[in-house]
Amino acid sequence: MRVTGPPSPAQIQVAAERIATFLKPKNALVMTGAGVSVDSGIQAYRGSDGRYANPNFKPIFYQELMDSGPKGHAFRQRYWAGGYLGWRHVFRSDPNPTHFALAALQHLDVAPRLITQNVDGLHQRASPFSKQETDSRTLELHGTLNTVRCLRGHKMPREEFQDVLSKLNPAWKAYSDELDRTGQKPRTNPDGDVDLGGVRFADFVVPECAECAAEGHPGSILKLEVIFFGESIPNEVKERSFRMVDESDRLLLVGTTLATFSAFRLVKYALEQNKPVVLLNLGPARTDSIPQVEKIELPSREVLLEACRLLAGSRASEDQTLSRLLTSGVVKPPEMED
């Protein structure tokens, strides 16, 4: 199902009924991508035409970041300078109605498990469950922005590390405060990085792991606990993702082009087991040439909220938790650029 131009209420209703019918047998697995966080103000990697939404986007590869020489140090300066400015934007972002609709599907127990390619933590913040239960139901396939770690395994909360960077880089702290004061919002990618066009970052001070230094291992490199381009997903994460497909009867994909192989292979795996797959996403996707994947090309927010109401019936108003989930969320999409 594809609609050009703004969808009509009738088209939203038809799509919602299809999603509700698909999910009604329960035991569905949901997998999400950057598209679900756009309404929270976080720019997706790709636009509706399949191009990178940020034409200037040049990802830093894992091998570049980990290089122990001067070149690697320069990449880390660029990486942490951009992340320093971008973090405040992602940290202040709030879950949008799509996050809450998916949390409602978990609450209804029709889609108890969720895999996300996003690293912003917004699914967890929308969850009605305890942290322990949320973690058991949710898998962050590509890691999280909320933790910094070194290669020896020491970890630090991202917010605490932000304070470390502020103390080491007072000029950058002043620049960040000025952006706040003037309301400027540098273009931020889903990984928390920003476009530093015209900004010099060669003076940015990058700290080493203090715990490693105290243990007699100076110079240990720090990185966010996210999977970089060229970096492998940990075996335990990979195995859990396949296990979640095994434990589910159907797969609903939301807001993803499936450009990364780590996500695409899960779809292939589900299809090999003859499990039905539906994709709710705007624009081209990697599965467009696969006829077994049913595609609904409409905005996820309206479709999922209505699908939840159809599945909930009278519970939508009688269940206080469900009622809250279906009426929560911000809608502050990022400004688009040509």
Automatic annotation (TrEMBL):
Keywords: Mitochondrion, NAD, Transferase. It comes from the Eukaryota. It is found in: Mitochondrion. Its main location: mitochondrion. GO terms for molecular function: histone deacetylase activity, NAD-dependent; NAD+ binding. GO terms for cellular component: mitochondrion. Residues 9-314 form the Deacetylase sirtuin-type domain. PANTHER family: NAD-DEPENDENT PROTEIN DEACYLASE SIRTUIN-5, MITOCHONDRIAL-RELATED. Belongs to the sirtuin family. Class I subfamily. This is Deacetylase sirtuin-type domain-containing protein.
